[in-house]
């Protein structure tokens, strides 16, 4: 069965993370990194991003070893996007200590010609005008998924609305879909978001799992109830990457393959948070994912018999 | 197949509810009411509670029509327990406006002799010393489940610890199991709670579903993603009632029947919140529950095939 390539655009970063387990400097991060590593477990990946002179070449080599095409990663004069954050003891919130945009401030995604025919596209959480620009550089993809955040919802509503009209899958946090639509109830919020363009809305709820709303109704995938979470950074991005990576292995995007992709996405996110930064993703295999899929099946199994 | 009776002890109340949909006075409520109505969908129920002179006899008649034995409901001089609360516009929080204990202040559960052999016991959220007293009046039940709350966790830790040692199933909110154990991570908190007595801990997470932790590992049941929630009052109590009511239909409490009971419990809670107070529960049938079980199956279905 042919596996399609996945195009991922987003940030690449060097993060300083203050976690309950310690402080970690210059951790390779960014939405494109996490998404690409997760997706590469299943499919060839093409990344569009920008890094500075300080980004280690060895890290790009790690990506290439996982069948990630880095020819769309531009290296520019200046520093890589840097984010510093501190997590609370129970990892339920974090504060940003510092943000240095560096070369990311001038990011203007230019796709190599070889990327133009990529059938699955993930628009990571960047300015909606840049998401739009990427869409203009690809030819009729089968599936376009996009993430966004409060910053663009509040600051760039018109540009975001234009992107929403062009995508089929919105992957968004629960709080953000509420902000986007003004609806608190998640089912109503998803219904409203779907009116704005995407035929399906996938609501990420962190440790509470994810809910898909589409023309088939609702689908729910739990998060795995881990006893040891080390670092939540990139959980949502590895979720989105796993989603598209799995869909790239499917000859067709059916209601069932879509649901399966969400369980795969949850499995990827659950592995990602078990180690600092992108470490666990660097060695993630289909076998690992399969083991967690078995755990998910056990987690929700209640038999098929009638109850009464 | 024989269905066993269920014994339920808890509060019976008259509530004033300020909901986004309106203000409703003298709504019949209390943990025993909600739990008993949900359980009675599946099994005969025996209630131990206290009401005042102001509690409508017609309401007790509603209970009896659903095969709920009210001979353990004592009617005393004075007023029924009254609670007044106001919910926020999105129903995510509520504030207590007034509490009048009334006859509930002197509640001293006395079981009719006919209740002593009830095989399934639900100790609703009352003073742990009263929960203990009920346990002393029943003979070797097959299953004892108990609920509790922050007020008893903080105020009566010794009495609560004694109850925990005598029950097999703790049904508790996420925030409360954190408070009880000092562990934020829900899997760790449940593990710690299990060390204190109950072999299984069922963590209620409201709209995020419920997690069971027992010797089999973890089981997760989602809450149904309703678009219209009218009144969350009693959701946790109808959940617990549905749980025991369904288990009462089972010849044995197996890992699978337990998991099924949690899905039934979620179905009962999802119906309960669709109307003000106990209204929807008054007419709830097994057929209704079956319909929602089908919806739950569809909600989490992702096929049984291997993914890779």
Fill in the keyword field for this structure.
homodimer, 308 residues, alpha/beta, UDP-N-acetylmuramoyl-L-alanine:D-glutamate ligase, ten-stranded mixed β-sheet, four-stranded mixed β-sheet, 35% helix
Radius of gyration of chain A over alpha carbons? 18 Å
The low-confidence runs of chain A, each spanning 5 or more residues with pLDDT under 50, are: none
| CA-based shape of chain A | globular
> Would you identify the CATH H-level superfamily of chain A?
Ribokinase
The major β-sheet of chain A equals:
10 strands, mixed
Instruction: Output mean pLDDT of chain A.
Output: 97
What is the helical fraction of chain A, as a range of percent? 25-40%
Give the helix/strand class of chain A: alpha/beta
Largest protein interface? Answer: A-B, 49 and 49 residues
Please state the oligomeric state of the protein chains shown.
Answer: homodimer
Number of helices in the DSSP assignment of chain A: 11
State the end-to-end CA separation of chain A. Answer: 42 Å
Order of helices and strands of chain A: EEEHEHEEEEEHEHHEHHEEEHHHH
Number of strands of chain A: 14
